[in-house]
Amino acid sequence: AKDAGRNSIRFFNPRMQATLDARMKLESALREGLDRGEFRLYYQPQVDRDGRLIGAEALLRWFPDGQLVGPDQFIPLAEETGLIVPLGQWVLDAACAQLSRWQQDEATRHLQLAVNVSARQFHEADFVERVRHSVEASGIDACGLKLELTESVVLEHVEEVVNRMHVLHELGVRFSLDDFGTGYSSLAYLRRLPLDQLKIDQGFVRGIVDHPEDAAIVDAIVAMSGSLGLATIAEGVETDEQWHVLLGSACQAGQGYLFGRPLPLEQWDALLLRESES
Ligand code: C2E
Ligand code: CA
Ligand code: CA
Ligand code: CA
């Protein structure tokens, strides 16, 4: 369904040479979409080693005239134009509202919700205040909120990044380093960040069964995170074989089609219900 949606909206296709005109159309469509409430969060399950649900990653979807458009089609332009700031704020508020519901129910109180934060958003002058406000306005225990940052976020303005992360960490907010292994972070550098989790990039997971080098990298990442006191989660887990290798590496958690696709709220709630009845 997602791919059909992508192909039917021609000017969102990133392979086309984006003309200024198309970009301006997309930009104003995004802006209006935000005003009109065309964005939704989808929830993808995250599980522990025993396959038990421990939380979800919130993934943004856009429905201009009812068609599903995935984030790869609009996040890059939203970042370039700065629209990612109000859009990211919407995501944060929606995620906190969702967490608040989970935290009010005994059965779902333990679930963590991971939210993607782009570089531009994180580096906004008032980012920390905005997060604090979202947390306070929703009344959540911030421990349920996990911000996923990529290396592109944390490699610039290091002092400021470390400061901000510490302030948020004191509020209770958790941090996961997304797409880990694809960038250039050094061990020495990672030690300085108040991270809770490394998220092993799906590129390694994809090759883990057939390519010993990928398995070796994953092994090394898990061992390294352990010695830094960090948890690990693998993303893009699609097969039992991959999960088996990851469990052999002592990876603590998984996310991927094997456990569940990103789900719209109604389907996610149905999953929670099944989970609580089992
Ligand atoms: P990401 O943060 O690395 O998210 C993981 C992507 O992998 C998601 O794509 C997810 O649907 C997909 N995925 C999950 N499990 C599997 C699997 O088993 N196999 C495969 N092949 N793919 C899997 P999605 O939802 O299209 O999101 C793409 C990217 O858009 C995200 O990559 C993230 O960088 C960005 N994004 C999504 N939502 C937000 C948001 O709210 N804010 C920001 N700033 N970026 C977002
Ligand atoms: Ca992510
Ligand atoms: Ca990722
Ligand atoms: Ca990615």
Automatic annotation (TrEMBL):
It comes from the Bacteria. Residues 23-276 form the EAL domain. This is cyclic-guanylate-specific phosphodiesterase. It comes from Plasticicumulans acidivorans. The lineage of its organism: Bacteria, Pseudomonadati, Pseudomonadota, Gammaproteobacteria, Candidatus Competibacteraceae. The chain holds residues 826 to 1103 of 1104 of the full protein.
